[in-house]
Structure formats: structure tokens, C-alpha cells
Design a protein that fits this description.
By secondary structure, the chain is an alpha/beta fold. Strands 1, 2, 3, 4, 5 and 6 form a 6-stranded mixed sheet that branches. The longest helix has 17 residues. The protein starts with a strand and ends with a helix.
Length: about 180
């Protein structure tokens, strides 16, 4: 199967997940790993499966990836699976995590699903995990999101280590599951 793992990354978090997905998909398949800046949306027609990744910015996929999805061809023949990294707790990782996740990363899923529906692209699902935030995002979280110094220190200890080996293992498992369905 011809597969592409295309991504946009600013701090390296999404790139690490892309690499893990690529490594898993490369077992027995013709796989390309690249940044979205290296291809056009029309180039995706050359593949049967597209893994597309982004960081979460402002509770949504980063603007370059949303723009890329908007440019995707209609009825292209490829299937798409998404992945994204975010600096918030996942719903099952923290008490109250669902509300926090929805507030700070909740638009990402719809930003994959909606263009796929509009363009008749078979959406295969998504993977997400925490990723270490950039210094400006850390400062925003400290001043606008987490008011307790103790909670903030605990948060930083967790988020700065992500994506970790468990996250990358889960990304590979996600890729394996998607590929096995096809």
C-alpha cells in the first residue's frame, strides 16, 4: 500500500508522532514521511492512505493544516487518518479532563471530520496525545489556565516529558490498527 505521513510541527512534538507512525507503516508498505510544506494537497492523490498531523493551536488544528485540508481534492480516492498533539490533559488523564480537553483541544477532531465529509474523503479516525508546549504557551497556561502553583508545577512535570515512549507506542498502535482495517 502507498502511504504518506504528512505533518506540520513547530516544536517537534507532532514530528515525533509522525516518525512513530511512519516507522510502523514502513513495515511492508511504500511510505513517505514529509512536512506539509514539501507537498501540495493534490499530491495526496498518489497515495491510498494519508496520515495527516498537526499541533493544536487555539483549541483547533494549526492553521497551516486546516488550510491544507481545505485545499484537499474532492473524492480523491485516498483514505485519511489524523493525528495531533496538544498541551492539555486528555479526557481520561485528569479529573475534569473532558471539560479541559474540550475547551483547549476540542475543535481538532471536527477540523478533520468536516472537510472529509465535505470532500468525500473516507476518514479513518484520529490519534492525539500531549506534547510539550512552547514557552509562550507555557506562560499562557500559567497566567490564564492554571492558578495553583502546585498544580502548575505538576502540569509542567507531566507535559514537558511528552510525547513520551507510551504516547509513541500508542501512535504506532494507531497506525497498525488503521492499516490493518484496509
Amino acid at each position: 500500500m502507498r502511504i504518506i505521513v504528512a505533518y506540520y510541527s513547530e516544536t517537534g512534538n507532532t514530528e515525533k508522532v509522525a516518525q512513530a507512525i511512519h516507522d510502523e507503516a514502513a513495515d511492508g508498505h511504500d511510505v513517505r514521511l514529509c512536512k506539509i510544506s514539501e507537498i501540495t494537497a493534490d499530491d495526496l492523490r498518489d497515495y491510498e492512505l494519508v496520515f495527516l498531523g498537526a499541533p493544536c493551536h487555539g483549541s483547533d488544528l494549526a492553521p497551516p493544516v486546516r488550510k491544507f485540508l481545505k485545499a484537499a481534492p474532492k473524492s480523491p480516492g485516498f483514505k485519511l487518518a489524523g493525528f495531533f498533539t496538544h498541551a492539555t490533559y486528555a479526557p481520561d488523564e485528569y479529573e475534569g479532563g473532558e471539560e479541559i480537553y474540550q475547551r483547549w483541544a476540542g475543535k481538532c477532531i471536527a477540523s478533520f471530520e468536516t472537510p472529509c465529509q465535505e470532500k468525500q474523503i473516507e476518514f479513518q479516525g484520529y490519534f492525539h496525545c500531549m506534547g510539550a508546549p512552547s514557552p509562550p504557551i507555557e506562560e499562557f497556561i500559567r497566567t490564564k489556565v492554571i492558578s495553583s502553583e502546585e498544580q502548575y508545577r505538576s502540569y509542567l512535570s507531566e507535559v514537558r516529558s511528552r510525547p513520551d515512549s507510551k504516547d509513541l507506542h500508542n501512535a504506532r498502535a494507531f497506525a497498525r490498527t488503521i492499516i490493518s482495517k484496509l
